[in-house]
Amino acid sequence: MSKIREDLTLANSSFSHIIDVPVEKVDIGKWLFSLSEAEYQRCCPPDHIAVGTTTTEDGRPMSINVEKIGTSLSIQHYVGEVVEKHKCRMVSTTDIFISNEQRTQMQVIWELSVKPVNAEQTEFTNFVVTHPSEHLLRIFEDQGLTFEQASASRQKISEDHNRREAPLFAESIARAARGEVH
Question: How far apart are CA 117 and CA 21, in angstroms?
Fold first, then answer.
C-alpha cells in the first residue's frame, strides 16, 4: 500500500438537505449499518453499485461501498471512527480502478451529520474529503497532470456526485426514521 498524503487535499465537498423528521427520530449510525443494497443503489443511481457491512479485526464497524465516481470504480472500506445517532465519521483507504491496468488508492473521509432546524425538521449534511496516495500522485505525473489540474478535475467530479447523493441519503434517513425502510 502506498503512503497516503494527508497533507494534500485532492477534493472536498459538503452538501446539506432538509428532511421533514424531528432530529430526535434520526439515527444515522443505525441507518448506515442496516442499509440494504437496494436502498444504497437508490441513493445515487447509477453510481452506487453495492454496499455491505462487516467489522475490522479489532471490532470496529465497517461499511464496504462500491461505486463509480466519474470514470473510476471505487471500493471504499469505511471504518467507523465515530458512529452515533447524529454523526458518523468514516475513514476509508479506498481502492480506485482508473482503468483495467491501473489500480491505486486514496483516503476518503466521509462525515454524515444532522442538526435540528426546528421541532419537525432536520438538516442532513454529507461531507467528503479525499487525500491522494503517493502512487496516485505518480499516476497523475505520468499522465502529464499537475496536482492542481488533477485536484480541479476530482473536485468537480466529487461535487457532482455529492450533490446528487446527499439529498437521496437524507430522504433515505428520513424514511428510516419514520420506519418506512428496514
Answer: 10
CA proximity to 2, closest of 127, 108, 133: 133
Task: Give domain 11-177's CATH superfamily.
Answer: START domain (3.30.530.20)
User: 28 and 42 in contact (C-beta within 8 Å)?
Assistant: no
Cis peptide before 45 (omega within 30 of 0): no
Place of cell 465515530: 82
Q: Which three cell numbers stand for residue 105?
A: 488508492
Cα dist. 25→11, 37, 55 in Å?
A: 32, 23, 26
In the numeric block, which cell numbers belong to residue 86? 447524529
pTM score, whole prediction = 0.94
Buried b / exposed e along 36-50 (16+ C-beta atoms within 10 A): eeebbbbbbeebbbe
Q: Which residues does 21 contact at the CB level (< 8 Å), separation at least 6?
A: 120, 121, 122, 173, 174, 177, 178
pLDDT tens, position by position, 60-106: 999 999 999 988 999 999 999 999 999 999 999 999 998 767 899 99
Q: Give the residue extent of every domain in the chain.
A: 11-177
Coil vs helix vs strand at 178 = coil
For residue 95 the three cell numbers come to: 481502492
